[in-house]
Amino acid sequence: MGYKSAGLRSRGDRGGRFVPRRADVGLRSRQSRPGEQQSARGRYTQFRLVAVGVVGLNLALLGMAALQTKAPLPNSAEFLAWVVFVAIAGFVPLSSGRGPSLAMDLPLLLAAAFIFGPMLSGLIALLGAVDIRELRREISWPRAIWNRSQTSRSVMCASVVFSELSHLGDWPLTPLVALVALGVDVAVNYTIVAYGTSLRRGASFRESLRAMRFGSPSSFLMSYLCFGFIGILIAEAYT
């Protein structure tokens, strides 16, 4: 959900590669290249450790959510339908041209978070947040699991917030609660992806965040608000 990271080649590279440093690599002496390679290996090792942590923590959160789930589970056909629809929506990404891409499965995953609770919505995200490059074998399966895990965690966090605040009442408070949940989802998603991107590319965390913005701040905010309200409408229509 939201942004997806893609290792050394992100979807954003189609429109223009994100360059965190000045393009003076070709002017550096050959003596500096071993140091650069060692630094790159160190960043990659750090990224792998962070990725393992993200995947492991996400699995632990799914297990904890499963133990605490009291709501009746949907039938298998219904669950698989949600996974398939989320996967189809994820095949149409939007690229900022400077960094990771924005997946279009956000409204569906938000709706799942509002309807099914943390465990099922997190599982739907883990199974359904498919990156089309997985099918093209352009990214490795560890990076695919990293992308899915950070998406799953974002969805679960949004679901927890919505569940905890839903007692405040129905309309017109429901959209406000949903927007708070959306804000939590975006914060978790952006933090994980921006940090992972900064490790892989040697950019600062702030530079990585800046590269993830689409258009002006106002249009960027309106896009997410629209996605959030679409998620609310899907949830309302479903229930």
Please provide a written account of the structure.
Mean pLDDT is 79; it is low at 6-32. Helix 4 packs antiparallel against helix 6. By secondary structure, the protein is an all-alpha fold. The protein is globular and about 60 Å long. A three-stranded antiparallel sheet has the order 1-3-2. The two termini are 22 Å apart. The protein has helices at residues 33-68, 76-90, 106-116, 118-128, 132-136, 141-165, 173-201, 205-211, 217-238; strands at 3-4, 94-95, 101-102. It has nine helices and three strands. A hairpin with a 5-residue loop joins strand 2 (94-95) and strand 3. The longest helix is centred in the first third of the chain and has 36 residues, at 33-68.
Report the order of strands and helices.
EHHEEHHHHHHH
- Low-confidence stretches are 6-32
Helix content: 55-70%
Structural class: mainly alpha
Beta-strand proportion: under 5%
| Sheet with the most strands: spatial strand order | 1-3-2
Report the strand count: 3
Tally of alpha and pi helices: 9
**How far is the first residue's CA from the last residue's CA?**
22 Å
Shape: globular
> Biggest sheet, in brief?
3 strands, antiparallel
Radius of gyration: 19 Å
Question: Could you report the average pLDDT, rounded to the nearest whole number?
Answer: 79
